[in-house]
Write a structure and sequence with these properties.
alpha/beta, TIM Barrel, 9-stranded mixed sheet, 12 helices, 24% strand
Length: 404
Amino acid sequence: MKYINKSFSIEKVKAQNLAKKFATPIYCYSYKQLKKNINNFKQNFKSFSPLVCFAVKANANVNLIREIGKLGLGADVVSIGELMKALKAGINPKKIVFSGVGKTKTEISYAIDKKILLLNAESKSEIIEIEKIAKSKNKIINIGIRLNPNTDAKTLSKISTGKKENKFGVDEKVFFELIKYSKNSKNISLKCLSVHIGSQIVDNVPYEKMLNVVDRIIRKANYEFEFIDLGGGMGISYDNNGKKLNYKKYNISIKKFLKNHNSKIIFEPGRSIVGNAGVLITKIIYIKKNEKKDFIILDAAMNDLMRPAIYGAKHRTLPALKTNLFSKKIYEFVGPICESTDKFITLKKFQKLKEKDLIIMCDVGAYGMSLSSNYNVRPKPIEILIKGSKINVIKKRQKLKDLI
C-alpha cells in the first residue's frame, strides 16, 4: 500500500476509485501484504517448522480466513462461532486449537465432535467438564493446559494476559495438580502446555523470560508434552518509526529452548498476520472550525474502529490525495457518534483538508472489523480484498433494513 502519482493505492487500485464505486467507510485489505506477512513469519521460524494457527479473533472474515488457510495456516479460536467460521473457511480441524477461559458445554461438545487438534483448558473445572463430555461420547480427548507464567509482557495493561492478576491460565501449583489429574483420567490425554502473555509485544525480553519459566516447569513436572503452544502477541509498528518484534531473536530463544525439549511448537499470531494488511477509507463529512483546533468529522466512527476508544490506540492517518499545502491549525479526527471517546487522533502539521476529502486510517486489519459494532444503529462497513488490480467484495455493507 503506497502512493502512486500522489494517490493512495491498495496494490494497483486507488482509494479514490473504491470510494466512488462503493461509498465510504470501507475496510480494504491487501492480499500481497497478507501473503508477505505469512511468508515472512514462516521463513523466520522454519528451522523448527511450527504449526501456525491464525488467531481468528483478530479478523473473523470467512473469506479472509480462507485465504490465510490456503497459505498454510491453521486457526486459533476462542468461541463456537469462530470455530464454525474456521471450519467453513476450510481450515483442517487437525490444525485448530480452541483457547479461552469460559468454554460452555455446547462449545466443548461441538469441538469434540469436529475432532479438532486441541482444547486448551484453563481451569480444573473446565478439565472436569471436558472429561465428563468425553466420557459420555466414549472418547479420549487431547487437551492442553494453559499456564500463567506470571510474566509481564510490558504492553498495555488492557491487553496483558500473562501476569498472576490476569484471569488467564493456572499458576504453577495448580498446573502440577492438573498434570497429575490428567494422568489418572481415562478420557483425556494431556498433550500440550499452552502459554500466552499478551498482545502487541515488541520486546523480546518478556518472551525469553516466559521460555525460561516454561523450561523450568517442564523439568520440574518431568512430563513430556507433544506440543508447546507459545501463543501469539507479536507486535507490529503502528507508526513509521515504531518498534516491532524481532523474529530472528525470538527464533534463537526458541531453538535454545528446543535443545532440551522434543516438542512441536504452536504459534497463535493474529495482529502480525493481518494488522498492516488493512486500511479504513473514510470521508470527511464536515470540518468544524474552532479557535484552537479544527474538528475533522468523518463518516467512520468508534463503532467502525474501536481501538482508539478502548485502548487509546493511534493509527497512522493519511490523506487519500497528496498535495503540498499544509494547515497551520491542529486537526482532531473524530466520528459522528454521540460519545466523547469517538475520536481517532489529533495531529499537527497535517495536509490542508476540505470537506468531502478522503482519509486513510492504516494498520486496521487486526481488531478493526472484529471489534466493530452497530452502536447508534450504524451498519457495519463493506470489506474488500484487493489482489493486484482485482477487487473482491468479501463482505457486503450491512443494510439499515436488516438492523431495523
